[in-house]
Specification:
Layout lengths: L3 E6 L2 E6 L9 H16 L8 E6 L3 E3 L4 H4 L3 H19 L5 E5 L2 E3 L1 H7 L3 E5 L5 E2 L2 H4 L5 H10 L3 H8 L7 H7 L4 E3 L2 H16 L5 H11 L1 H6 L9 H9 L2
Parallel strand pairs: 2-3, 3-5, 4-6, 5-7, 6-8, 7-9
Antiparallel strand pairs: 1-2
Helix pairs in contact: 1-3
């Protein structure tokens, strides 16, 4: 069964995480997402005036790393981390604007995945943004913090999210400047992402130029993607897995 699908609708590419599960980020799912992104890159008609929308079926956009899959295996934990870092690098260098259409919960690494898009729209009748690490006893890696610092400008909001593990609703996310727009339902959220995407398509921006400018904005994140110091603390990862 495919864990994601890719649809081309004019100059919009819609990548959907399929199924009613939590869309945990394990190597299989991350590889599938990266494969879809590579297919878009290989489409020579997509290098200018195109937009990527990422969304998901079910209650979760993504509930983060698949800690149950990784268990206490050093190789699995390092592999999962390295693949997500590669995916975030792909998104930062991607040659078009990107939109995350969040129709459910986005937690921990799933929240980081959403933040790695240029724009975020979200449904307001269900779902929250949540960094769970404080509550499950895991250190937040430096590269996660780099993404959070670049994308969430208000220090008090960062404190609430990181040090108090506050669950942020769509309405709160709009007020905090994390979310660009909130909608009443799944359908309206996806429609809102498509409308935003169509507006961006009309700009006709050069994808390579867009990519280079974005890489300059998120240089600090790119500089941190080479390592993840938290993967060395296997005991804490195992304890956190038991709490899932």
């Amino acid at each position: 069964m495919d864990v994601c699908t890719l649809e081309k609708r004019g100059n919009l590419f819609i990548l959907t995480l399929t199924g009613e599960d939590e869309h945990r980020l394990n190597p299989t799912r991350i590889d599938a997402i990266r494969s879809a992104l590579n297919r878009i890159r290989s489409d020579t008609t997509s290098l200018s005036g195109s937009v990527l929308i990422t969304t998901a079926h079910g209650k979760f956009f993504s509930n983060g790393y698949d800690l149950a899959w990784a268990g206490s295996s050093p190789d699995k934990i390092h592999l999962m981390s390295s693949k997500l870092r590669a995916l975030v690098g792909d998104l930062i260098s991607f040659p078009m604007p990107t939109i995350a259409a969040i129709t459910g919960h986005a937690c921990a690494a799933g929240f980081i995945l959403a933040l790695s898009h240029d724009y975020i729209v979200m449904r307001k009748d269900r779902g929250f943004l949540y960094m769970s690490e404080m509550n499950i006893g895991l250190k937040i890696p430096a590269w996660f913090m780099a993404v959070i610092s670049c994308k969430i400008g208000d220090a008090m909001v960062r404190r609430e999210i990181v040090l108090k593990a506050k669950k942020i609703t769509a309405k709160q996310g709009v007020k905090a400047g994390i979310i660009d727009a909130a909608y009443d339902s799944v359908e309206e959220t996806v429609e809102g992402a498509v409308e935003l995407g169509e507006k961006l398509v009309k700009k006709g921006w050069n994808g390579q130029v867009y990519s280079e400018i974005r890489k300059g904005i998120y240089k600090e994140v790119l500089n941190k993607l080479g390592a993840d110091e938290t993967t060395d603390d296997l005991e804490k990862v195992a304890i956190a897995s038991s709490k899932m």
